Amino acid sequence: MGDVVNLNKFRKQQERDRSAKQAEENRIRHGRTGSQKRKDRLERSRLEKKIEQSKLEKAPTDPSKD
Q: Taking the model in full, what pTM does it have?
């Protein structure tokens, strides 16, 4: 005779396996690695600094000339 198997445990394990497989597919499809996120943050901060440095300052307005 074969081994006795608890069907509830078997079903729960199957569901966990399916869930883990779906999570892996979602990470591949939608996720980005930490290094990609870091690179994007650095690039964004570099661009913000460049934009800030290239802004022209407005001359203060003289209220007596109005």
A: 0.46
